[in-house]
Amino acid sequence: MASPSSLSPPQVPKELYDINREKLLKSLRQHLTETSRPLHGFVFLQGGEEKSRYCTDHIELFRQESYFAYLFGVTEPGFYGAIDVATGNSILFVPRLPADYAVWLGEIKPLSYFQEKYRVSMVYYTDEIVGVLHKLRKEVCQPLLFLLHGLNTDSNNFSKPAEFEGIEKFETDLTTLHPILTECRVLKSDLELAVIQFACDISSEAHVEVMRKTQVGMKEYQLESIFLHHTYMYGGCRHCSYTCICATGENSAVLHYGHAAAPNDRTLEDGDVALFDMGAEYNFYGSDITCSFPVNGKFTSDQSLIYNAVLDAHNAVISAMRPGVSWLDMHKLAEKIILDSLKKGCIIVGNVDDMMTERLGAVFMPHGLGHLLGIDTHDPGGYLKGPNRSKEPGLRSLRTARGLEEGMVITVEPGCYFIDALLDPAMGDSNTSKFFNREVIGRFKGFGGVRIESDVHVTANGCKNMTNVPREIWEIEAVMAGAAWPLDKASACSRVNNVNNGSSC
């Protein structure tokens, strides 16, 4: 029997992390030179620690801290890492494990193992940090450590600077490293792009599997399970980029559905729209893909209206993307296209420019158009450069307002939702109530929503869509009717026509 996957997990070269460290060193040295500071000190980061579940001895599955992963690619917990600004040498500090580790958790590896595995200049134990760094900079009484501390504008949380016994014997700098290292993560190298592309490829393939196997009467979590199984079984993806959103019916208007209080447990009903936002992570790098489709495999006229409104916005943005383009302008473009489509469908009435002025688009698309993607689903750096965050509805939810640059990977995810908590106030507001066709919009109560999300690489002259899933209505209906993906258009249309009793593809 043929495998349901054409993919296999690629070997990720350790050169990827060499390149990341060299990129940081170049940027940091340039900054120090421009600010008339000496080129010495150590970039010093603390890796992630294993965590137990509350007071138990159950250890949660470890995932490395993202900045540490970016520079060193280390998969194990308890490490520290340093980069000598003067020489460029990279140093890992490994936890000294107790003898009984070998009984319960496996072989205790020698330091040489980690030096070879992670391609660093030197490896020592974590209890040697003070002595090693002082020896490497013996001409300085208190060697300088550039520590990671700064605000993540997506989460509003701060990066945690390294802590270790004896840190008081060093001079520390808490302000220089974070913006420089964060900016390094914004633009991806070719090796990073290749890993992200695999994460997108296996996730795209898994989305098609989910689409093909969706049936009325299933549970949302069963479709989540199909996605997780496929990406792990065939892609070696033990981690997901985020908690899967497997929303159907009115749940598809819950933007971050799938959390513990809404755990993907609804039964799929005939006539539902499904909105599945799921992405696998491979070797730390993630993907973030959303597909929307009818659970019974055939779009109604109302579903087609909303779906095509979002698809037109999605396609227009991708067509317009290139270096120098404002992401704020792309968000407004998506809003305007969706509002134009809703007006053509008689859901709203009036002048679309007036609607834009009154921020009506935020009623139907309250989230931002997309976000930077990389080692984190919401990769940092969105507001390091460019305009500050807007305070207007919808626009304040944008995770970046920067101009696009070659090497960025950013999601394009317009959506259109019917959310009572937003519609009711807008329909009662004197500035926006005039835009609603109340008779028609009543048909969409309980409709839920549609989101279409692709991961896009900004190139020198435009962009490349890294996602490969059915997007056009005829493609979705063909795949759900059993056609192979990618489609042969003639055979796919024939299959859809048979399902639709001869109606046109």
Rg estimate, integer Å? 25 Å
Give the proportion of residues in helices.
25-40%
- Return the structural class: alpha+beta
Based on the coordinates given, report the CATH architecture of the largest domain: Alpha-Beta Complex
- Which CATH class of the largest domain is shown? Alpha Beta
Mean pLDDT over the residues: 96
| SS field, number of helical segments | 16
N-to-C terminal Cα separation, in Å?
A: 30 Å
General shape: globular
Describe the 3D structure:
The chain has helices spanning 15-34, 66-72, 101-104, 111-118, 129-136, 177-186, 190-213, 220-235, 301-320, 327-344, 352-357, 361-364, 420-427, 438-441, 473-480, 489-499, and strands at 42-46, 80-84, 90-94, 122-125, 144-147, 151-152, 157-158, 171-173, 239-240, 245-248, 273-278, 280-282, 285-286, 289-294, 409-412, 415-417, 449-451, 454-458, 463-465. The chain has 505 residues and is α+β, with helices and mostly antiparallel strands. The protein has two domains: 14-186, Creatine Amidinohydrolase, Chain A, domain 1, CATH 3.40.350.10; 190-485, Creatine Amidinohydrolase. The strands form six sheets. It has a six-stranded mixed sheet, sandwiched between helices. A hairpin with a 4-residue loop joins strand 18 and strand 19. Helix 15 packs across helix 16 (489-499). The two termini are 30 Å apart. Its cofactor is Mn(2+). Its EC number is 3.4.13.9. Keywords: Dipeptidase, Hydrolase, Manganese, Metal-binding, Metalloprotease, Protease. It comes from Manihot esculenta. Belongs to the peptidase M24B family. Eukaryotic-type prolidase subfamily.
